[in-house]
Automatic annotation (TrEMBL), chain A:
The chain crosses the membrane at residues 71-96, 117-144, 164-185, 192-210, 316-334. Keywords: Membrane, Transmembrane, Transmembrane helix. The keyword Glycoprotein does not apply. Pfam families: ABC2_membrane_2. It comes from the Bacteria. The keyword Aminoacyl-tRNA synthetase does not apply. This is Transporter.
TrEMBL record, chain B:
Keywords: DNA-binding, Transcription, Transcription regulation. It comes from the Bacteria. This is GntR family transcriptional regulator. InterPro entries: Tscrpt_reg_HTH_GntR, WH-like_DNA-bd_sf, WH_DNA-bd_sf. Residues 12-80 form the HTH gntR-type domain.
From TrEMBL, chain C:
The keyword Nuclease does not apply. GO terms for molecular function: ATP binding. Keywords: ATP-binding, Nucleotide-binding, Transport. Residues 5-226 form the ABC transporter domain. This is ABC transporter ATP-binding protein. Gene3D superfamilies: P-loop containing nucleotide triphosphate hydrolases (3.40.50.300). SMART domains: AAA. The keyword Transmembrane does not apply. It comes from Actinoplanes palleronii. CDD domains: ABC_DR_subfamily_A (cd03230). InterPro entries: AAA+_ATPase (IPR003593), ABC_transporter-like_ATP-bd (IPR003439), ABC_Transporter_VariousFunc (IPR051782), P-loop_NTPase (IPR027417).
């Protein structure tokens, strides 16, 4: 069974593996470029926050014109696209093609149970997907660790799914998703399309909905400076006043910046229309004064970079649990419900 | 050794066709005492026929005493058919030819002659049975 | 007589469509059994149920005395249109068989491949229909099942390929394998099957040994009359009448001695067709007899 799994898998696996190898080769070729640039910029071994910040800027701008930049973004893109590739080209055809071409009738009349057949294929494909994703993520993490330290972006939604252990989870889940879609829909093309939609949905939903629930975001309160630049929107009818302060830099992933009252609730007015708003005669002067009297604060909610690994492992765990649940479901389905 | 063939449009059961072919060969002297019949496997491989059918035909022939099966060796012819009656064929054939000439003179065409012969033959056989 | 397959009230529905309704039959072991009937009679469904690729909606089916499960080493199956893996070579199919079947007979497999002249290095997707059928048969046979089920194995083959295929099948039958094959073509069954079951609309119309069926069916032609007058022990399978003449297909164990009938033999195809059209036409239902 292991032989058959390999024999049927080898073409897509080798094709995917080839693409990953190109990326790995790109990293190997630019490895010294990155470390040299960090060294020359004084970022390696820098002391003190300010010195490091300026060394980081020098380091990052030095990389802007080398070959390291396409490798950096190529790696990012690869790990973001890999789950979809694995789901569509490895997972979706796995059962659907057997059902479509009728070969399931041949292989299921060999002396092997349907459940075991699927289990071996799920394990083989899932492990291969996990291994490939893990290897690339590991290499990319090592290759880019200086860049990540310099730009502090590894916790951002754009970089997060291409670092650490999460890519392993996505690749494995995407594979199982593809298999399950093929099993239920029985058509390769339909299964591929549905797999693509679901995986993309998952990748979008993770940062928007799931990740802020996996760790408690950190919040900071600072007194609002009424004279600072900020966006204001005022409603004539309800006298509702909304303030949008400029986002503040934080070492992490900024979720929201809101203005809150001393009671801790979001500030929405109502504003004194004689001081603020278009009806106030001297708004430029009176409005900041009035706002200062409200004792407002800016509340910044973010996930700090320090929680990177906690978040990685929690999201990974969630993905693995999902993948296992789907696997169990599809094995049950092929044994009981395929008929 | 004889070769079997099957006529699937005859309505005669395949095992019966095999028996008839052996009898025919015995009657014509193609097979004689001591000759070996092809094995079931050989017949199966040659004519794409059900092996049970071949076995059944051989069993029937054995029951009639025409052949005997020697385990491990094969099936052998034990006696010939109609060696004594072979000499009677010629006069009978002459009688039949005379009858055919009469029928033709009476104005019967080939088909009518055949139908007449078959119906008479069938009535005769059924009466005997 | 032991049974290769028994079904009682067997029913399979796909959603609201019924593929097999209340089917009851008993297929003896140790035979080459032909399962014939028109398209849509439920033959494929019955065979898929028998090898555990489908589960019945209602009723019961036993194969070699057990409930069928796919993956049983005791039952081999050659599916309709003889599916093979287009991307795998002939040799790789055998390798797959060897990996997936503990009882794999690699000598039988290789001999058969050589005998039918298949190139082991050939991709299965490039094989002709006949070669593909031979490959599928080899894979099914080399696991040495006690019972081999074939679903319309020769339907798509040209006459020569059909003959070669059946020849190979008969050589397997000679090794003692029980065989059940479905077909809607009757022409070849007479020589290869020794037992026949005619299935029309999920019902067994007639079942029996081929020799008995041939011996007991007659076509009667004679002056017009009511077929009910035929007497005991005779069943009318099919009848057609003109103003003056009646033509009947009759099942009778005793010889027909009424001289006013012209009695003719029927070949197996005629008998099967009589049961199929008789079922559609007169509505006279015959119980399956053994």
């Amino acid at each position: 069974m292991i032989w058959l799994t390999w024999r049927q898998f080898r073409t897509p696996v080798l094709a995917t593996g080839g693409l990953l190898l190109v990326l790995l080769a790109g990293m190997a070729l630019t490895w010294t470029q990155v470390t040299d640039a960090a060294l020359n910029a004084g970022f390696t071994g820098c002391q003190g926050a300010d010195a490091c910040a300026s060394a980081a800027d020098t380091f990052l701008s030095a990389l802007r014109y080398g070959q390291a930049k396409p490798v950096y973004y190529g790696g990012l893109a690869t790990l973001v696209v890999l789950p979809a590739v694995v789901g569509i080209f490895w997972g979706a055809p796995l059962v659907a093609r057997e059902l479509e071409t009728g070969t399931y009738r041949m292989v299921f009349s060999q002396s092997i149970g349907r459940g075991r057949w699927l289990l071996v294929k799920l394990l083989g494909g899932g492990l291969a997907a996990a291994l490939g994703a893990g290897l690339v993520s590991l290499a990319l993490g090592r290759w880019a660790h200086l860049i990540d330290a310099a730009n502090g972006e590894r916790i951002l939604p754009t970089t997060f799914p291409a670092r650490g252990v999460v890519p392993i989870g996505y690749a494995a889940l995407a594979f199982v998703l593809g298999v399950t879609a093929g099993l239920l829909l029985r058509r390769t093309l339909t299964a591929m399309a549905v797999t693509l939609v679901v995986i993309t949905g998952l990748q979008l939903a993770a940062p928007l909905l799931v990740r802020p629930l996996l760790v408690t975001p950190t919040s900071t309160l600072t007194a609002l400076d009424p004279k600072a630049r900020m966006g204001m929107s005022y409603s004539m009818e309800t006298k509702e006043l909304r303030l949008e302060p400029m986002p503040e830099e934080r070492d992490g992933w900024l979720l929201s910046t809101t203005v809150v009252t001393p009671a801790g609730t979001e500030f929405v007015g109502p504003a004194d229309s004689t001081k603020c708003g278009p009806e106030a005669p001297n708004e430029r002067l009176t409005c900041p004064e009035w706002l200062a009297a409200q004792h407002l604060s800016t509340k910044v909610t973010y996930i700090p970079d320090a929680k990177f690994w906690v978040l990685q492992w929690r999201e990974f765990g969630l993905l693995v649990v999902l993948a296992m649940a789907l696997s169990i479901f599809s094995v049950w389905w092929i044994r009981r419900r395929l008929a | 050794m004889i070769e079997f063939h099957l006529d699937s449009r005859s309505g005669v059961a395949p095992y019966m066709q095999l028996i008839q072919q052996v009898r025919h060969a015995l009657r014509l002297g193609v097979l004689t005492e001591g000759d070996k019949l092809p094995t079931v496997k050989e017949v199966v491989a040659r004519v794409a026929i059900n092996p049970n059918t071949v076995s059944k035909a051989y069993r029937e022939l054995e029951y009639e005493g025409l052949v005997t099966a020697r385990p491990g060796l094969g099936t052998f012819v034990t006696r010939t058919l109609g060696a004594d009656s072979l000499s009677r064929h010629e006069p009978l054939r002459r009688d039949l030819e005379r009858w055919l000439a009469e029928a033709r003179e009476a104005g019967l065409d080939d088909e009518s002659i055949e139908a007449l012969f078959l119906s008479a033959f069938r009535t005769f056989s059924e009466a005997r049975a | 007589m032991t049974s290769a397959l028994t079904a009682t009230g067997l029913t399979k529905k796909y959603g609201r469509r019924t593929a097999l309704a209340d089917c009851t039959l008993d297929i003896p072991a140790g035979h080459v059994v032909g399962l014939v009937g028109p398209n849509g009679a439920g033959k494929s469904t019955l065979l898929l149920l028998a090898c555990g690729l489908l589960d019945p909606t209602a009723g019961r089916i036993d194969v070699l005395g057990e409930r069928p499960v796919s993956g049983s080493p005791r039952v081999g199956f050659v599916a309709q249109d003889t599916p093979v893996y287009a991307g795998l070579t002939v040799a790789e199919h055998l390798r797959m068989g060897a990996h997936l079947n503990p009882s794999w007979d690699s000598q039988l497999a290789e001999e058969r491949i050589a005998q039918v002249g298949l190139d082991p290095a050939q991709k299965a997707g490039k094989l002709s229909g006949g070669q593909r059928a031979q490959l599928a048969l080899t894979v099914a046979a080399a696991k040495r099942p006690e019972l081999l089920l074939l679903d319309e194995p020769v339907a798509a083959l040209d006459p020569l390929a059909r003959r070669t295929f059946l020849q190979g099948l008969m050589e397997l039958a000679a090794t003692g394998m029980s065989i059940v094959m479905s077909s809607h073509l009757v022409a070849d069954l007479e020589r290869v099957c020794d037992h026949l079951i005619v299935l029309v609309a999920s019902k067994v119309r007639v079942a029996g040994d081929v020799d008995d069926l041939l011996a007991s069916h007659h076509r009667l032609a004679g002056p017009r009359r009511d077929p009910a007058d035929l007497g005991a022990g005779r069943t009318v399978v099919e009848e057609s009448h003109t103003g003056k003449q009646s033509t009947l297909v009759v099942r009778s164990t005793a010889p027909i001695d009424d001289p006013s009938w012209q009695v003719d033999r029927l070949d197996l195809e005629d008998i099967v067709l009589a049961y199929m059209s008789g079922a559609a036409g007169s509505g006279r239902v015959l119980e399956g007899q053994r």
